[in-house]
Design brief:
single chain; 286 residues; alpha/beta; four-stranded antiparallel sheet; 10 strands; 41% helix; binds adenosine-5'-diphosphate; binds magnesium ion
Length: 286
C-alpha cells in the first residue's frame, strides 16, 4: 500500500521574480508502506526541496502530494495532521536543539501532541534507546555534548513523535566513519522494530548501498533513475556521467572485471565482492 505519493510535483522558488528558480519538476514517486528509500543526488539537485514537500513544510508550485491517499495540502487541517505522520529530520539538526536539557529536547515534539505525562516519558525513553542516548545524559544540557550525540538527540526528538514515515536529510553529513555507521544502524533498527517507512537523503553511495531497498537518483530537479540498488549500480557509467560516485566495491568490481576476472554484474557491497572473488578463486582451484 502506498504511504506517500507525489504527482507531477514541481517547486519554483521566488516565482515571478528575477531570482525565479525551478528546484524540482514533474516528480512522480510512489512510496509503499515500510520501504527504506534513499534519495541520492548532487548538491543542488533538489533533494531537500523534494522531501520538505512530504510533510507540507513547502507547498507545491504545481502538482500534488498524497499521504495514505489524502491530498496533504487540501486545507490547513490536512497540512497540520501530516506533520504527526511524517517526521522530518533536517540536515545538521543539532543546530536546532534549544531546550536546557536533553530530556526536554527529546520531549518537545510529543509534548505538543496532547499526550499524558507518562506517555511522553515512555516515548522519550524509547526514542533515546533507539538512537543510543544514555538516560544518564537526560539532565545534561545538549550544548555540552559532542556533535554525534547532539545529532542523535535531534533524531530522537523526531522519533519520539512515532512518525509512520521518518525522513532524514543527510543524517551522516560531517560525522566520522564510526559515527556514520552507528547512525545508519540506529535508523535500520528503528525501522525494523516499528515497520516505519524511512527516507534517507544522502550524497554518499557507500552509505546507502548497504541499507536501501530502493534508490531514487535526482539530477537537476528531476528523477534520473529509480530502482533497486542492483538496478541502479548496474548503471555505473551513467552515474559517473552525472557526477555521482558509485560504491567503492562496485568500482573495484568494474576494475577487476576489466582486468579479466570473471566477476558477475551487480556487485555493490564489500561482502558481495569478497564472496564473488572467493567463488572465482574456488572455481579456478577445481
Ligand atoms: N530558499 C531557496 N530560495 C531559492 N532557491 C533555492 C532555495 N533553496 C534551494 N534553492 C535552489 O533550488 C535548487 C535545489 O536545492 P536543494 O533542494 O537544496 O538541493 P539539494 O538538497 O539536492 O542540495 C538549488 O539550485 C538551490 O540553489
Ligand atoms: Mg539538501
Amino acid at each position: 500500500m502506498s504511504v506517500i505519493k507525489t504527482e507531477k510535483l514541481t517547486h519554483i522558488y521566488s516565482m515571478g521574480t528575477p531570482f525565479e528558480k525551478v528546484a524540482i519538476e514533474g516528480i512522480d514517486i510512489d512510496i509503499p508502506q515500510g520501504q527504506l528509500l534513499a534519495v541520492i543526488g548532487h548538491t543542488g539537485s533538489g533533494k531537500s526541496t523534494f522531501i520538505q514537500h512530504l510533510n507540507a513544510l513547502l507547498q507545491p508550485s504545481s502538482g500534488a502530494v498524497y499521504c495514505q491517499g489524502e491530498d496533504i495540502n487540501k486545507d490547513k487541517f490536512s497540512r497540520r495532521d501530516v506533520k504527526w505522520k511524517v517526521g522530518l529530520v533536517f540536515q545538521y539538526p543539532e543546530y536546532q536543539l534549544f531546550e536546557e536539557t536533553v530530556y526536554k529536547d527529546i520531549a518537545f515534539g510529543p509534548s505538543n501532541m496532547k499526550l499524558s505525562a507518562e506517555e511522553i516519558d515512555q516515548r522519550v525513553r524509547e526514542a533515546a534507546a533507539f538512537v543510543g542516548v544514555d538516560e544518564e545524559l537526560f539532565e545534561h544540557s545538549p550544548l555540552e555534548l559532542s556533535g554525534g550525540q547532539k545529532r542523535r538527540i535531534a533524531i530522537a526528538g523526531v522519533i519520539a513523535m512515532r512518525p509512520q514515515v521518518l525522513i532524514l536529510d543527510e543524517p551522516t553529513a560531517g560525522l566520522d566513519p564510526r559515527g556514520c555507521q552507528q547512525i545508519l544502524e540506529n535508523i535500520c533498527d528503528y525501522r525494523e522494530k516499528t515497520g516505519a517507512t524511512v527516507i534517507i537523503v544522502s550524497h554518499s553511495m557507500d552509505d546507502v548501498a548497504k541499507i536501501a531497498e530502493r534508490i531514487v537518483v535526482f539530477h537537476k530537479g528531476k528523477v534520473a533513475m529509480d530502482g533497486s540498488p542492483e538496478e541502479i549500480f548496474c548503471r555505473a557509467e551513467e552515474l559517473m556521467d552525472i557526477g555521482l560516485d558509485i560504491p567503492r566495491a562496485a568500482e573495484l568490481a568494474i576494475a577487476l572485471r576489466r582486468e579479466g576476472l570473471g566477476l558477475p554484474e551487480g556487485i555493490y557491497t564489500h561482502e558481495q565482492l569478497l564472496a564473488a572473488i572467493l567463488a572465482v578463486k574456488e572455481g579456478s582451484a577445481c
